[in-house]
Amino acid sequence: MRLVRIHADTPSALGACLRWLGEPAQHYLRIGLAISLLVHAAALAWRFGAPAWRRPPAAGLEVVLLNARSETPPDAPRVIAQNAMTGGGNASQGMASTPLPRTGQSAETIVLEATRQRQMQLEAEQARLMTQLRSADKAGVERFVFASTCSNYGKMPDPSAYVDENSELRPVSLYAETKVAVERYLLGLERTRRAKPTCLRFATVYGMSPRMRFDLTVNEFTRQVVTGKELVVFGEQFWRPYCHVRDLARSVVHVLESPEEKVAFDVFNVGDTAENYRKLDIVEAIVAQVPEARVSYVKKDEDPRDYRVSFAKIRDVLGFQVTRTVPDGIREIREAIEDGLLTQPYSPAYANVPAAGEATPFA
Length: 363
What we know:
The protein has helices at residues 13-21, 27-45, 107-138, 174-187, 217-226, 245-257, 260-263, 279-289, 312-318, 326-338, and strands at 143-149, 196-202, 204-206, 231-234, 239-244, 266-270, 276-278, 295-298. The protein is of the alpha/beta class. The chain has a domain at 107-350: 3-Layer(aba) Sandwich (Rossmann fold), CATH 3.40.50.720. Strands 1-2-6 form a three-stranded parallel β-sheet, sandwiched between helices. The chain has a three-stranded mixed β-sheet with strand order 3-5-7. The longest helix is centred in the middle third of the chain and has 32 residues, at 107-138.
């Protein structure tokens, strides 16, 4: 082999290199260089990357909104399940006839299991209360105020009459059943015990509070109208008593400051007899402040909670009177939203999340 010295800084260097490669002795080197060029060219021409994304086929999933905690229905619902979960909605085809999940169990088994669960919840509530009472006794507490509810009355037998503390209790939800059970337990305790109980049956609460609630009738109706949405009202003719949250708080203090002989082992409805309203009355009070409100009504002939309550006892025996009315509560909520105090009135933080099928507290 003949060696050729190449100087890269001279114009003849490239020519000398090419002449050297052209010699017969470099035949195999030329073949190797040609193969190398082809391989590198092919490698550079090849595209690397992730495969193109393809949308998966639709699975045909059906979603049913169940037990919505709102007076406002969803747009075009497929199924409207009943609040107490005792019915299966209004769809005759394509949907299950019950809102309960499919378990393969018979209807009787499901009912028995639900009853057992309800009994366990009642017993747990009573056990918790007994623990609190024992703690109160040990701490030397002399007054024990139990926050109950007017929902204990359920549906009044005579729609034209008012129920009072001596009326029959007809609870229609686990929430109210628990309250009734605890009331009976407290009132059945020995009278000589140190911590004397008093049961306060609160009217349906409304109004501004540090822990705001928008899953309550007056508050929810007002929010819906003030934010420019259409208000859909179900069963506008049903009655319920209402009381501002501040007045409910005042009633507890009032009982604690009252003479023991007037409140011990007794029950008081908390509210004002003049503050019994139908849903229609509440809507009219809102429209009086927001004339541009858009309201529609859905006929509903049956509601398990339909009652008017007398609050004469707490007024006559303890001298307690409310300081605010439903129109006052509507005004403060309207102003809070309009002034930007509540920037996200539809936030989930403003609603309780009760167990499925249960009534919201104070509802």
